[in-house]
Task: structure prediction
Amino acid sequence: MAEREISQAVIGRLPRYFRYLGELKDREVERISSRELSDMMHVTASQIRQDLNHFGGFGQQGYGYNVEYLYREIGKILGLDKTHHLIIIGAGNLGQALANYMNFQRQGFIFTGIFDVNPALIGKKIRGIEVRPMEEVTGFIRQNNVDIAVLTIPKSEAVAVAERLTAVGIKAIWNFAHVDLDVPEGVQVENVHLSDSLMRLSYMIDRYESQKK
Ligand code: NAI
Result:
Protein backbone atom coordinates (compact mmCIF):
# COMPACT_ATOMS: atom_id res chain seq x y z
CA MET A 1 0.00 0.00 0.00
CA ALA A 2 1.32 3.45 -0.91
CA GLU A 3 2.45 5.39 2.15
CA ARG A 4 1.03 8.87 2.06
CA GLU A 5 1.17 11.53 4.72
CA ILE A 6 -1.80 10.78 6.94
CA SER A 7 -3.00 13.40 9.37
CA GLN A 8 -2.89 12.69 13.09
CA ALA A 9 -6.66 13.26 13.14
CA VAL A 10 -7.21 10.34 10.75
CA ILE A 11 -4.72 8.13 12.61
CA GLY A 12 -6.60 9.01 15.80
CA ARG A 13 -9.84 7.71 14.30
CA LEU A 14 -8.42 4.42 12.98
CA PRO A 15 -8.60 2.48 16.27
CA ARG A 16 -12.32 3.20 16.39
CA TYR A 17 -12.82 1.90 12.83
CA PHE A 18 -10.74 -1.12 13.77
CA ARG A 19 -12.90 -1.80 16.82
CA TYR A 20 -16.19 -1.59 14.92
CA LEU A 21 -14.88 -3.69 12.06
CA GLY A 22 -13.68 -6.29 14.59
CA GLU A 23 -17.21 -6.49 15.98
CA LEU A 24 -18.66 -6.88 12.46
CA LYS A 25 -16.13 -9.60 11.71
CA ASP A 26 -17.14 -11.43 14.91
CA ARG A 27 -20.75 -11.28 13.71
CA GLU A 28 -19.56 -12.72 10.38
CA VAL A 29 -20.66 -9.68 8.40
CA GLU A 30 -18.78 -9.78 5.10
CA ARG A 31 -19.58 -6.39 3.56
CA ILE A 32 -20.65 -3.03 4.81
CA SER A 33 -21.52 0.21 3.03
CA SER A 34 -20.22 3.56 4.22
CA ARG A 35 -23.85 4.44 5.00
CA GLU A 36 -24.28 1.43 7.34
CA LEU A 37 -20.91 2.07 8.97
CA SER A 38 -21.94 5.69 9.38
CA ASP A 39 -25.16 4.69 11.18
CA MET A 40 -23.25 2.39 13.52
CA MET A 41 -20.45 4.80 14.31
CA HIS A 42 -22.38 8.07 14.27
CA VAL A 43 -19.89 9.56 11.84
CA THR A 44 -20.99 10.93 8.44
CA ALA A 45 -20.68 8.58 5.48
CA SER A 46 -18.61 11.19 3.69
CA GLN A 47 -16.16 11.37 6.61
CA ILE A 48 -15.81 7.60 6.46
CA ARG A 49 -15.18 7.65 2.71
CA GLN A 50 -12.67 10.45 3.10
CA ASP A 51 -10.82 8.70 5.92
CA LEU A 52 -10.67 5.36 4.20
CA ASN A 53 -9.68 6.87 0.86
CA HIS A 54 -6.38 7.84 2.44
CA PHE A 55 -5.39 4.24 2.19
CA GLY A 56 -6.13 3.71 -1.44
CA GLY A 57 -9.90 3.24 -1.04
CA PHE A 58 -10.82 -0.23 0.09
CA GLY A 59 -14.42 0.24 -0.99
CA GLN A 60 -16.01 -0.48 -4.30
CA GLN A 61 -18.79 1.73 -5.58
CA GLY A 62 -22.20 0.26 -4.80
CA TYR A 63 -20.64 -2.81 -3.24
CA GLY A 64 -19.45 -1.52 0.10
CA TYR A 65 -16.35 -2.40 2.04
CA ASN A 66 -15.02 -5.89 2.52
CA VAL A 67 -15.01 -6.10 6.33
CA GLU A 68 -12.24 -8.70 6.66
CA TYR A 69 -9.96 -6.90 4.22
CA LEU A 70 -10.53 -3.47 5.73
CA TYR A 71 -10.00 -4.83 9.25
CA ARG A 72 -6.74 -6.45 8.19
CA GLU A 73 -5.45 -3.40 6.31
CA ILE A 74 -6.26 -0.95 9.11
CA GLY A 75 -4.64 -3.41 11.50
CA LYS A 76 -1.49 -3.30 9.35
CA ILE A 77 -1.50 0.51 9.32
CA LEU A 78 -1.75 0.46 13.11
CA GLY A 79 1.07 -2.07 13.27
CA LEU A 80 -1.26 -4.67 14.76
CA ASP A 81 -0.20 -7.37 12.32
CA LYS A 82 2.89 -7.73 14.51
CA THR A 83 3.03 -9.07 18.03
CA HIS A 84 4.20 -6.80 20.83
CA HIS A 85 5.47 -8.01 24.17
CA LEU A 86 4.42 -5.81 27.00
CA ILE A 87 5.36 -5.51 30.63
CA ILE A 88 3.62 -3.53 33.35
CA ILE A 89 5.65 -1.56 35.87
CA GLY A 90 3.63 -1.02 39.04
CA ALA A 91 1.30 -3.79 40.23
CA GLY A 92 -1.05 -1.50 42.16
CA ASN A 93 -4.70 -0.80 41.42
CA LEU A 94 -4.27 0.35 37.84
CA GLY A 95 -1.47 -2.06 36.92
CA GLN A 96 -3.52 -5.04 38.11
CA ALA A 97 -6.66 -3.80 36.37
CA LEU A 98 -4.79 -3.51 33.05
CA ALA A 99 -3.14 -6.90 33.53
CA ASN A 100 -6.54 -8.45 34.14
CA TYR A 101 -7.99 -7.03 30.94
CA MET A 102 -7.66 -9.83 28.41
CA ASN A 103 -8.69 -8.03 25.24
CA PHE A 104 -5.33 -6.42 24.46
CA GLN A 105 -4.08 -9.89 23.64
CA ARG A 106 -6.47 -10.10 20.73
CA GLN A 107 -4.80 -7.08 19.16
CA GLY A 108 -1.38 -8.68 19.43
CA PHE A 109 -0.24 -7.19 22.75
CA ILE A 110 1.13 -10.06 24.76
CA PHE A 111 1.22 -9.42 28.50
CA THR A 112 4.54 -10.94 29.48
CA GLY A 113 5.42 -9.67 32.92
CA ILE A 114 4.54 -7.35 35.78
CA PHE A 115 6.99 -5.72 38.20
CA ASP A 116 6.84 -3.84 41.48
CA VAL A 117 9.05 -2.69 44.34
CA ASN A 118 6.64 -3.63 47.09
CA PRO A 119 7.77 -6.96 48.67
CA ALA A 120 4.16 -7.67 49.70
CA LEU A 121 3.18 -7.92 46.02
CA ILE A 122 6.09 -10.02 44.77
CA GLY A 123 4.94 -13.52 43.84
CA LYS A 124 1.25 -12.58 43.65
CA LYS A 125 -0.26 -14.08 40.49
CA ILE A 126 -2.25 -11.99 38.05
CA ARG A 127 -3.72 -13.97 35.15
CA GLY A 128 -1.17 -16.66 35.94
CA ILE A 129 1.77 -14.24 35.79
CA GLU A 130 3.75 -13.60 38.96
CA VAL A 131 4.64 -10.11 40.08
CA ARG A 132 8.44 -9.87 39.92
CA PRO A 133 10.82 -7.59 41.77
CA MET A 134 12.21 -4.59 39.89
CA GLU A 135 15.75 -5.98 40.27
CA GLU A 136 14.81 -8.52 37.59
CA VAL A 137 13.39 -6.09 35.06
CA THR A 138 16.44 -5.42 32.87
CA GLY A 139 17.35 -9.10 32.46
CA PHE A 140 13.71 -9.91 31.76
CA ILE A 141 13.42 -7.27 29.01
CA ARG A 142 16.52 -8.61 27.27
CA GLN A 143 15.52 -12.26 27.52
CA ASN A 144 11.89 -11.85 26.49
CA ASN A 145 12.12 -9.38 23.64
CA VAL A 146 9.90 -6.92 25.44
CA ASP A 147 9.16 -3.82 23.38
CA ILE A 148 6.47 -1.96 25.36
CA ALA A 149 6.46 -0.91 29.01
CA VAL A 150 3.30 0.27 30.71
CA LEU A 151 4.01 2.70 33.54
CA THR A 152 1.49 2.55 36.36
CA ILE A 153 3.73 3.90 39.09
CA PRO A 154 3.76 7.19 41.01
CA LYS A 155 4.87 10.16 38.95
CA SER A 156 7.83 10.75 41.26
CA GLU A 157 9.27 7.40 40.05
CA ALA A 158 8.30 7.47 36.39
CA VAL A 159 11.13 9.53 34.90
CA ALA A 160 13.93 7.47 36.45
CA VAL A 161 12.20 4.17 35.66
CA ALA A 162 11.61 5.21 32.03
CA GLU A 163 15.31 6.04 31.71
CA ARG A 164 16.28 2.64 33.06
CA LEU A 165 13.89 0.81 30.73
CA THR A 166 14.86 2.63 27.56
CA ALA A 167 18.54 2.03 28.33
CA VAL A 168 17.90 -1.72 27.93
CA GLY A 169 15.92 -1.46 24.72
CA ILE A 170 12.28 -0.67 25.51
CA LYS A 171 10.91 0.88 22.31
CA ALA A 172 7.67 2.35 23.56
CA ILE A 173 6.07 3.50 26.79
CA TRP A 174 2.38 3.59 27.56
CA ASN A 175 2.56 6.18 30.27
CA PHE A 176 -0.21 6.51 32.85
CA ALA A 177 1.87 8.50 35.33
CA HIS A 178 0.98 12.17 35.24
CA VAL A 179 4.42 13.38 34.22
CA ASP A 180 6.13 14.11 30.90
CA LEU A 181 8.93 11.71 30.11
CA ASP A 182 12.15 12.69 28.43
CA VAL A 183 13.10 9.66 26.37
CA PRO A 184 15.86 9.06 23.80
CA GLU A 185 15.08 9.68 20.16
CA GLY A 186 13.23 6.79 18.59
CA VAL A 187 11.41 5.77 21.75
CA GLN A 188 7.66 6.29 21.42
CA VAL A 189 5.55 7.55 24.30
CA GLU A 190 1.79 7.57 24.50
CA ASN A 191 0.48 9.43 27.53
CA VAL A 192 -2.89 8.37 28.83
CA HIS A 193 -4.89 10.63 31.09
CA LEU A 194 -8.35 9.33 31.84
CA SER A 195 -9.15 12.64 33.49
CA ASP A 196 -8.82 14.39 30.09
CA SER A 197 -11.68 12.28 28.85
CA LEU A 198 -13.68 13.07 31.97
CA MET A 199 -13.05 16.79 31.48
CA ARG A 200 -14.32 16.52 27.90
CA LEU A 201 -17.45 14.88 29.32
CA SER A 202 -17.88 17.72 31.78
CA TYR A 203 -17.53 20.20 28.91
CA MET A 204 -20.24 18.37 26.94
CA ILE A 205 -22.65 18.40 29.91
CA ASP A 206 -22.02 22.10 30.33
CA ARG A 207 -22.50 22.88 26.67
CA TYR A 208 -25.73 20.87 26.49
CA GLU A 209 -27.13 22.51 29.61
CA SER A 210 -26.30 26.02 28.38
CA GLN A 211 -27.87 25.35 24.95
CA LYS A 212 -31.13 24.29 26.65
CA LYS A 213 -31.44 27.67 28.36
P1 NAI B 1 -1.08 2.29 43.43
O1 NAI B 1 -0.45 2.99 44.55
O2 NAI B 1 -2.20 1.34 43.68
O3 NAI B 1 0.05 1.48 42.58
C1 NAI B 1 1.33 1.97 42.33
C2 NAI B 1 2.29 0.81 42.41
O4 NAI B 1 3.56 1.22 41.92
C3 NAI B 1 2.50 0.29 43.82
O5 NAI B 1 2.24 -1.08 43.90
C4 NAI B 1 3.96 0.62 44.12
O6 NAI B 1 4.56 -0.32 44.97
C5 NAI B 1 4.54 0.58 42.73
N1 NAI B 1 5.80 1.30 42.58
C6 NAI B 1 6.20 2.46 43.19
N2 NAI B 1 7.42 2.80 42.76
C7 NAI B 1 7.82 1.86 41.88
C8 NAI B 1 8.99 1.67 41.12
N3 NAI B 1 10.03 2.51 41.15
N4 NAI B 1 9.08 0.57 40.33
C9 NAI B 1 8.06 -0.32 40.27
N5 NAI B 1 6.93 -0.19 41.01
C10 NAI B 1 6.80 0.89 41.77
O7 NAI B 1 -1.53 3.42 42.41
P2 NAI B 1 -2.55 3.31 41.18
O8 NAI B 1 -3.87 3.76 41.61
O9 NAI B 1 -2.41 1.97 40.55
O10 NAI B 1 -1.95 4.41 40.21
C11 NAI B 1 -0.70 4.21 39.63
C12 NAI B 1 -0.26 5.45 38.84
O11 NAI B 1 -1.16 5.69 37.77
C13 NAI B 1 -0.24 6.74 39.65
O12 NAI B 1 0.83 7.53 39.20
C14 NAI B 1 -1.56 7.40 39.33
O13 NAI B 1 -1.51 8.80 39.45
C15 NAI B 1 -1.67 7.00 37.87
N6 NAI B 1 -3.04 6.96 37.36
C16 NAI B 1 -3.22 7.50 36.14
C17 NAI B 1 -4.42 7.46 35.54
C18 NAI B 1 -4.52 8.04 34.18
O14 NAI B 1 -5.60 8.19 33.66
N7 NAI B 1 -3.41 8.37 33.59
C19 NAI B 1 -5.60 6.87 36.17
C20 NAI B 1 -5.31 6.28 37.45
C21 NAI B 1 -4.06 6.34 38.03
Observations:
- The pocket of NAI is lined by residues 89-95, 115-118, 121, 134, 152-155, 157, 161, 176-178, 192-195 (CB under 6 Å).
- The chain has a mean pLDDT of 91.
- The helical segments are 8-26, 34-41, 45-53, 67-77, 93-100, 137-143, 155-167, 194-212.
- Strands lie at 31-32, 65-66, 84-89, 109-116, 125-126, 129-133, 148-151, 172-175, 188-191.
